[in-house]
DNA sequence: ATAAAGTCCTGAAAGC
DNA sequence: TGCTTTCAGGACTTTA
């Protein structure tokens, strides 16, 4: 689930319920989600009593700074989420970390598979993390977009998925964007025309706009994403049976009619 | 049992 | 030839 729009949704959830509040307790229920060498003790020691600042996002990473303390850094892998819960809401099976805020509510890092997790970072560690990432997909302008992609010889889908090129796009979003721009996912990026790249950039902007507002890639029937899990998925635009195979190591759906 | 929206690592091929 | 870029595949993990 968690691609850029989902993480933006988590950020908003956090700010609406946890913004500017004090961490009054921390419970690590499964230390399998602790990353970057953080231990439960260090997490408690460095977060307890701290006030949360304004959370921000870059790509699929969420950064939650504390006032006069380290930044809590979250990545959600494929199944993670962040949710704000009442104190008395029963603990779910996959609530891995529970932060109590102002003794009045809890912020929970929930994750079924523990592919990623949370860590603490100082300014330098945050900078190092960002160094490995391209610009956030939601803010890439057309010229920069073209510069980032036009020289790459690999498949356009691989390039879009590569977080060091553009940060935030995942498997579903990439397929959705390529479908909208009518570009085959295996097309070598450098073979794309100026017009192709323009269409791709426009499609990315529109898809992200809608998805960020929704807080996820919307499962609409008019979108490719809303069809890909059908038993006989067809293109929402032309009705052709969709193709499906692996590109860039991931399950990829496209329309053989629209995306030549 | 297979596959899944995430990333990281390795080894090897491709390209300059 | 040698360096860089890119890809495939496996690993991580849990459950439908």
CATH topology of the largest domain: N-terminal domain of MutM-like DNA repair proteins
Overall average pLDDT: 94
CATH superfamily of the largest domain: MutM-like, N-terminal
Largest sheet: 4 strands, antiparallel
Distance between the termini: 28 Å
Side-by-side strand order of the widest sheet: 1-6-7-5
Taken together, the total number of domains comes to 2
- The proportion of strand residues reads 15-25%
In angstroms, what is the radius of gyration? 20 Å
Shape: elongated
By DSSP (H or I, 4+ residues per run), the number of helices equals 7
Number of strands: 10
CATH architecture of the largest domain: Alpha-Beta Barrel
Share of helical residues: 25-40%
Structure description:
With 260 residues, the chain is of the alpha+beta class. It has 2 domains: 4-131, Alpha-Beta Barrel (N-terminal domain of MutM-like DNA repair proteins); 137-254, Helicase, Ruva Protein, domain 3 (Orthogonal Bundle). It is 30% helix and 21% strand. The protein has 7 helices and 10 strands. The chain has helices at 4-18, 40-47, 123-131, 142-149, 156-161, 171-180, 194-214, and strands spanning 23-28, 56-58, 61-65, 71-75, 80-86, 95-101, 105-111, 118-121, 243-247, 250-254. It has a 4-stranded antiparallel β-sheet. A 4-stranded antiparallel β-sheet has the order 2-3-4-8. It has a two-stranded antiparallel ribbon with strand order 9-10. Helix 1 (4-18) runs parallel beside helix 7 (194-214) and helix 6 (171-180) crosses helix 7 (194-214). It binds a DNA duplex (16 and 16 nucleotides) through helix 6.
């Amino acid at each position: 689930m968690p691609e850029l729009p989902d993480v933006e949704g988590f950020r908003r959830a956090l700010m609406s319920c946890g913004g500017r509040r004090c961490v009054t307790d921390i419970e690590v229920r499964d230390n399998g989600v602790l990353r970057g060498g953080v231990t439960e003790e260090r997490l408690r020691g460095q977060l307890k009593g701290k006030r949360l600042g304004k959370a921000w996002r870059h790509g699929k990473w969420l950064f939650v700074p504390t006032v006069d303390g380290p930044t809590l850094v979250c990545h959600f892998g494929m199944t993670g989420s962040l949710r704000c819960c009442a104190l008395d809401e029963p603990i779910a099976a996959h609530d891995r970390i529970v932060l109590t805020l102002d003794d009045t509510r809890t912020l929970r890092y929930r994750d079924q598979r523990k592919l990623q997790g949370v860590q603490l970072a100082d300014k330098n560690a945050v900078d190092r993390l960002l160094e490995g990432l391209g610009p956030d997909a939601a803010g890439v302008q057309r010229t920069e977009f073209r510069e980032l992609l036009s020289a790459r010889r690999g498949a356009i889908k691989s390039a879009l998925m590569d977080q060091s090129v553009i940060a935030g796009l995942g498997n579903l979003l990439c397929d959705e964007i390529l479908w909208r721009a009518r570009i085959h996912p295996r097309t070598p990026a450098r073979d794309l025309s100026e017009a192709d790249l323009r269409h791709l950039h426009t499609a990315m902007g529109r898809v992200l706009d809608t998805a960020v507002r929704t807080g996820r890639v919307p499962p609409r029937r008019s979108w490719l994403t809303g069809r890909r899990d059908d038993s006989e998925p067809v293109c929402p635009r032309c009705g052709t049976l969709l193709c499906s195979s692996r590109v860039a190591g991931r399950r990829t759906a496209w329309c053989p009619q629209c995306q030549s």
